[in-house]
């Protein structure tokens, strides 16, 4: 692995933009990720996450602006890729190679691999390596790419929605790997739809919407975005005063005795407020990121 100046940011983007015809997929994005930092890149479908990562990887050419990886221009693919390993959103592997052969090939392409750690990861991800890659499911292809990337000592890991095909158990294993990478000083850029995943592993998050970076937030701010939707049915009428309960917002009476509301923070005040009423049905749902974005940034982000 080449020696790098520790003062250089792992990723630096300035005014980075990409236009596809009429679509401005990425709009003047400024971003700086420090060495060793785990940065989450959140945004609804079509927000421009993949396009941004593709420009960082030299797979798409910016319409304007620039991106650097540890000081090397992203378009200088040979130089930039000495500093990084990546897992694309749709992992394609060579159909006629076995999993073991694909891992070997990937190890020879990248910036150096820790073979002992790779063996450990194969076990932890419960990966069968003797099958031809064409027989792998989407999740298993993703596991091969993840094992190959995590086993490198590349100072930057770029992961594009890497857990979309993994089951929850493997999702947790993935989170452990990110924590281990960060402990070794590797920077991680993780694009995701999954708020809980980003919350579990990231130091900071950037929220992208319609090509614009709407906010870069620390974990505490991200937690404030977290809210739950409560559906309550009462035997009698909906009690008055729910809107005044701490943390409660968007109270909407749906009909006779039925109400839907959102709650940020602890549920205790709400539960106390309805304790004297006959609650006949209660359901709680965690809204998707998209809904949170729309509710929170709605007009402001336009
Ligand atoms: N090659 C392309 N040609 C034309 N339009 C494109 C191309 N790639 C992306 N786009 C458009 O650019 C916008 C951003 O897409 P992008 O794939 O970067 O979003 P994303 O945030 O990664 O979404 P998802 O979470 O669905 O993967 C979308 O409107 C998409 O349709």
Automatic annotation (TrEMBL):
One term of GO molecular function: ATP hydrolysis activity
Xref: InterPro entries: AAA+_ATPase, ABC_transporter-like_ATP-bd, ABC_transporter_ATP-binding, DrrA1/2-like_C, P-loop_NTPase
Primary localisation category: membrane
Cell compartment(s), UniProt: Cell membrane
Pfam families, per database record: ABC_tran, DrrA1-3_C
GO cellular component: plasma membrane
PROSITE patterns noted in UniProt: ABC_TRANSPORTER_2
Membrane topology: Peripheral membrane protein
GO BP terms in the entry: response to antibiotic
Keywords in alphabetical order: Antibiotic resistance, ATP-binding, Nucleotide-binding, Transport
Domain (ABC transporter): residue spans on this chain: 11-235
Family classification: Belongs to the ABC transporter superfamily.
Protein name: ABC-2 type transport system ATP-binding protein
Source organism of the structure: Kineococcus xinjiangensis
UniProt lineage: Bacteria, Bacillati, Actinomycetota, Actinomycetes, Kineosporiales
